[in-house]
Amino acid sequence: MDDKTLTDNLETEIEPGIPEDLKPDLEPAGPLGLFGMPRGFEFSPLNVRRWRNFKANRRGYWSLWIFLVLFIVSMFAEFIANDKPLFIHFDGKTFFPVFMTYPDTDFGDDLGTAADYRDPHLQKFLDEHNAVEIWAPIRFSYNTINDNPPSAFPSKPTWMLTAQDCEFAAKNGYAKCGTLEYNWLGTDDQGRDVLARVIYGFRISVLFGLVLTIVSSVIGVAAGAVQGYFGGWTDLLFQRFIEIWTSVPELYLLLIISSVLVPGFFVLLGILLLFSWVRLVGLVRAEFLRGRNFEYIQAARALGVSNKVIMFRHLLPNAMVATMTFLPFIMSSSVMTLTALDFLGFGLPPGSPSLGELLSQAKANVQAPWLGLTGFFTVALMLSLLIFIGEAVRDAFDPRKTFA
């Protein structure tokens, strides 16, 4: 057999199961591999098909991009909404208040406290020295109070002010319309900018849901794997423990712990983690119970492969197919749980940027519809995007669905 015939036979044996419609996606791009990736990082044909199925669900595909853009933008919230300048330069000195805290002695005062860049005296000092300042687009942080509102708090968005509102402000000692700082979505009942709090609140909600989903999924998958693989008394005892544990009223336990500990991000995360890990246990347990009797698993046992390798290298990848479809829904549930707790007053500490607290303010201030509309549309958009992404992931991992 000549070299050319041997090479052709090897290529035929290497790719026996790749469908014809996937071969264009598997063609190497120049010196790189699939999708321009280096060799060794190429997707398998199965994952290529899953990605194509995900993209075929246009609603879920674009929801993923919209959600990623919003999340990435919110991660730079300090550069979008801040009551400190991003950059100051005067008299040959350069300051970066967004990164560091400077004493007011650097700006002509002698108190030695942290500089308040919204203070008129400090601004007058900078103007006298022809300082160059670069501010964020929104000159409010999530806890900055508007000192010059056009009305009593909560004040309506600046672009909604009418001539009658301006006349009322001038007659009653409020700020004149020509001197107002812009509040795109108005202020809440404590005078804080609503748009700034929405940006920071979106970030903390997504981060909370993401961390809670990842940690609880790791614990739940590990517990379900142990139950399903070993079975017998291990499975029986685990199941009885889960039944007892899930019968504990979560809200009451949260109230008790909150009365002892100061509520915070990590305290709340730990409390919810006590119960959220149970969500995936039943699904992973069923997958391991089904897969542990497969012939290749029995062959691995006969060859002396350790239980750890069999569980996490051979059985877990199959179990993760069903698990992955649930993760976006679990994350949306985690975000909604935090919002609900903040709405009830048992969530993040008072003053924290919170979408649930914004909805609570809307309930208490029905005369300020911008609070309720902003909170509702923000939460609805976030949860809708996560649900659409979850539907697309479910389609991608469903072996029965194939899109042209």
What do you see in this structure?
By secondary structure, the chain is an all-alpha fold. It folds into three domains: 3-64, no CATH class; 87-179, no CATH class; 194-397, MetI-like fold (Orthogonal Bundle). The protein is 58% helix and 2% strand. The chain contains 16 helices and three strands. It has helices at residues 3-14, 23-26, 45-56, 58-75, 120-128, 163-171, 194-230, 232-246, 250-260, 265-276, 281-291, 295-302, 307-324, 327-344, 355-364, 369-397, and strands spanning 87-90, 93-95, 132-134. The chain has a three-stranded antiparallel β-sheet, with no helix packed on it. A hairpin with a 2-residue loop joins strand 1 and strand 2 (93-95). Helix 7 packs across helix 14, helix 14 (327-344) crosses helix 15 and helix 15 (355-364) runs antiparallel to helix 16. It is elongated and about 85 Å long. 29% of the residues are buried.
Domain tally: 3
Rg value: 28 Å
Question: Whole-number average pLDDT?
Answer: 83
The CATH superfamily of the largest domain turns out to be: MetI-like
In CATH, what is the class of the largest domain?
Answer: Mainly Alpha
Enumerate the spans where pLDDT stays under 50 for 5 or more consecutive residues.
Answer: 1-41
Shape summary: elongated
**How many helices does DSSP assign?**
16
- Architecture of the largest domain, CATH level 2? Orthogonal Bundle
Count of extended strands: 3
Question: How far is it from the N-terminal to the C-terminal residue, by CA?
Answer: 40 Å
Global structural class? mainly alpha
N-to-C SSE string, H for helix and E for strand: HHHHEEHEHHHHHHHHHHH
CATH topology of the largest domain: MetI-like fold
Spatial strand sequence of the major β-sheet = 2-1-3
Strand content: under 5%
Largest sheet: 3 strands, antiparallel
The level of helicity is 55-70%
